Amino acid sequence: MSTIMVLNGPNLNLLGTREPTQYGSETINDLKERCIAAANKFDHTIDFRQSNHEGVLIDAIHEAGERFKQGEILGIAFNPGAYTHTSIALYDAIKSVDVPVIEVHISNVHARETFRHHSYISPVAKGTIIGMGLKGYELAIQYIVETC
Ligand code: DQA
Questions:
Q1: What total number of domains does the chain contain?
Q2: pLDDT value for 2
Q3: Which of 5, 9, 16, 80 might form a disulfide with 47, Cβ 3.0–4.6 angstroms?
Q4: Catalytic: 105?
């Protein structure tokens, strides 16, 4: 049994009430349940986290890197929220570790404001899942389990 880390960035704690036309009406707890169920299908577990703070996300990536080396973690499904579009520090953090990262966005960022079209994360992610709602996390988990 291994673990998949699901890491969520700023404002995703407000899922369910935040801009439901973009992000739907399910809460972060609903998302957590979906992720647990997706991993349980493969007899794996989820380490589910959310933080509004860039440094906490960086620490989580470093921790996942260490746990990846120990064979405890298979990969990270990572929705960096708005840090996607701003954070060289998250780019560097992912580049500094070997753990595979799948970048997930609930909304189709390319159909939104132009400032959402650029991602600092995509060049260092193994892949990206964009615009598929909360289902994107389940797909990322399945991908990590089957291929990482
Ligand atoms: C998001 C898209 C980002 O542009 C935005 O800042 C978010 C959520 C998404 O999941 O669609 O916070 O990452």
A1: 1
A2: 96
A3: 5
A4: yes
